[in-house]
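seq/struct pair 1
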Amino acid sequence: MVGVKRFFILIVSILLCFFLQFVILMRVPGLITVPNLLLVCTVSLGFLYGKADGLLAGLVSGLLMDLLGSGVPGFYTLILSVLGYLNGMLSEKIESEMILLLFVLFAVNELLFHLYEYVFAFLIRKSFVPGVYIREVVLPELLLSLIGFLVIYGILVFISKRWDLRVNKGEIRIV
């Protein structure tokens, strides 16, 4: 983690995504499901800024989700921290302009998140049928989150370049 600007971007983007996801979008009538904007933010920040920032973004995002009452403390903190770190590792290999590849990788992240959630929240208690979970939760949330990823990732890249942070093969260098 380097620089006050990146830390500011990280905290503000997580708080905005949290506010959008849990305050605004939860109140939209007719919306089948809400996109997982905290996952979007964590993955985007990991892709852009690397392992340490991805881990920090996952930690903060997960703590916010856990504070809303996931039941088990640290449930979402663990998965979001791991995904943020892994995407940060990928940032060294992937350029920020490879949107299609990033799009596919985000879909994989979303599916891993739901697999984790299904196994540890529903399957152990035998309270949810897999077909219903995929059809009613995973697919609608995946589609909305993919749209959210395109928007949020684009905004974060724009801000990073605008604030004199250069995105080069996933590394950010302060100019």
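seq/struct pair 2
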Amino acid sequence: MEALDNEKLISGNKQLKLTTHRLRYYDSSSKNSNFTSIMVDKISSIELTYQSNIWLLIIGIVTIPAFIGIILIILFYTTKKHVVSVTPDGGSSVIFQIKGMKRDSIEDFIQKVENASMKLKYK
């Protein structure tokens, strides 16, 4: 990534980079590749949600064989995941799943995005 004028890296890894000017998301798998870049002064909202398959829990509770029900309930709790959505003023949202990060780290990242956005919006 070539830096813009006065642009500095705030936080990042291979998939997600936050600079003083941009939020960039790279996602590639064997089937497809995805790249989204949002100027941080255009960010209008950030959302942190949990996604899970509620049907696993419901079927697990009403299943007569207890062993299968317990397995489905365990699957419900182990497949629950954090998902962050960053939405700009127009354009595509950046939606990514958080793996292996504690909630405090996620909230810290969101705070960094908000701080970078506010600095550019209210210069």
